[in-house]
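Notebook entry, structure prediction.
Reason for the run: the old model in the group folder had no record of what sequence produced it. Starting over properly, with the input documented here first.
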Amino acid sequence: MDHTRWETGIKCFNQKQTLCSKVLSTSCKPDRIRAIYQHVAIKKEVKLQGFNFSLQAASDPFDSQVSGATFGAYILVKLSSGRYNTVRLEFSTDMPPMTLKSTDFQTTKDDESIISMTVMLLCFGVSGNIVFANVMLLPKPSAFFQERKVTSVDLIDSCPGSHQTSYKFRVKKDHIVIPKKQGHNTNSKQKDVTLVTQISMDRMGVLQRSLSSWEGPVSLVIYIPWKGQKENNIEWQRLYIQKKVNELSLHPGSSVTVVSSLASLEDYPINTLRNIAIKQAQSKYLLLTDADFQTSPGFKERFFAVLKQYSFNQKTAFIVPAFEYLEQPQKQDGIPESKYELLQLLHREDAFIQPFRISESSESHRLTDYWKWYRTDKPYKVHTFSDKFEPYIVLEKNDKHPLYDERFFGYGMNKVTHITELYLKG
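New structure, fully documented this time:
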């Protein structure tokens, strides 16, 4: 699933009984899922056992282009027994404009009730624009409704509390020894910036390039899955990692930890690894990045120059504009040494770089406001927010910042949720 934008607004349709409606709309692509969600948790005392769901939809004339193509709504229903049910409400591609459909759900056991419902409006395998309107989720009457006048406030539970202590992922941690360099002042590390990242062992080759322009400490966590491996193979991997770490010539204030678990590589515990890397960092500031992110030369000096010129509080998150190559760079292609050089590569006729993920997920970094960054040498505030915004950031290390949600594995939404929590924390 990519991070596409959904538009909200008012749309009017030429029908006898329909005037104007509030709508959700998006552009579908045959090879992508477009989806938007709403989670509804039901209070335990309600004992809800059924509901009616209705929805109106309209679309451009288009044909299904892949097997399993669909658009409409899915509802994931969690029951008190621990079971899950999926309710589907699907539309055909040749339907009249603003077709209304509805479906019912009822528990099959008298002692079973609905704990929550997650509604997903989506399209997959089709190409064109779709519109959804009048999304209605109505509870079916029960004894609870007969005893009082009921509103949605009486039915819907509030958001859950902190999740940070609710989930534990079992891992084994081994610390890698960093060779010491002469002349390093160990007391200076508190005023430094640590590059915080994680990586799987099979991708360690990218570190040689991505850390080549970084002059500060690194907090690195390397993941090895135990599943399906023999103990002697795991020991060989640790020796290999030690050799590769030595070749990186890391800053003496760096920390490297090898994390292994019974999960497979497909179940990559990305946010667990990120949190370990954050906790082991010892400097005042943290640059939270991915392993293939390469900083510009002189990053630290420019960052501390900004800190001296302007005042910031402990909750300030400094956004780092990110770019990507349009073609795979060669070894001889050096990283731009200055902002001027970067802009030359960006705006030339045969552009060599572009803003990060602008083609596949434009919302991921849109709020960075690249055009403003091109024209100024001063820091500026990002006033708006999107739940698809996932920039690379520098934070001051303190207990006020939430950690990453460790329930996320593999790829998708793991960093977005952290940025969202930081935003909500102020």
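Summary: The first strand starts at residue 7 and ends at 12.
The old model has been moved to the deprecated folder.
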